[in-house]
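ok so for the tutorial part 2 we go from a plain amino acid sequence to predicted structure tokens. step 1 is just haveing the sequence, like this:
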Amino acid sequence: MKVRLGTCSWNYPSWSGIVYSSRMSRAADYLPEYSKHYNTVEIDSWFYKIPDPSEAEDYASKVGEDFQFTCKITNRLTLTHLRGTKNRPPEENPEFLSPELFIDFLNSSGPLHCKLGCIMFEFEYLNKQKMSSSGMFIKKAEAFIRQIPRNIPVAFEIRNPNYLSSEYFSFLREYNIGHVFSEKIYMPPVTEVYKRFGSILTPHTVIRLLGGERRDIELLTNNTWDRIVQPKEELINIIQMTQDLYSGGKKITINVNNHYEGCAPLTIKKIQAMLN
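step 2 — the prediction. this is what the tokens look like for a chain of 276 residues:
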């Protein structure tokens, strides 16, 4: 059992001198050096597309046997509605939680499956127009999960604080779906969620440290992610939560975003020191 520590995406030239020795022309070419520092990374780009098998194969070839990826499923599966235009209101997304599209995603990402620790479903905030209730969300998710292959662990990340209930976590546990703890603005602290529902978690847990308003920290850093500009006091509490999860035998993946403190690798360095 181990805690896997890595970043949300990895293609940041401003990490030169911290993680990388030089700049690369392709994102995949950073992975050999990245994987010498960390044992996991999140693939964010697949949220916006179905991956090409050659891309998945390229990623797999760049890292060692013990390395694992997490990835976000395409948002074609997690958006309830398609974005409208000035002359057209939003329309229901016919591919929302489509088992067929999920299988297409699995087939396209196949070369990476041997190194894929978890597929994450990142749902947007669902207002009443998009989803009538948390019960309806669970009903739709249950119908979906019953129809898909389960050879790779999946985890759900929701952005509705009111959905975080005993009913929701019991559903996750029944179908062995991981929970993604999202430390993010407008969501309750992950430590509070853990105190309430930690006893009914599934064996695989993902913690994503995402941070506050993106625009604020981007102005502070000027999109150069090489220093901590917003240190988070709550990090020590998250470490204590991680240690408790570890002692309970959970598989834990922590993905850190640059937007959390200003430089994900330097935040990870702090986490490693606290864990040790």
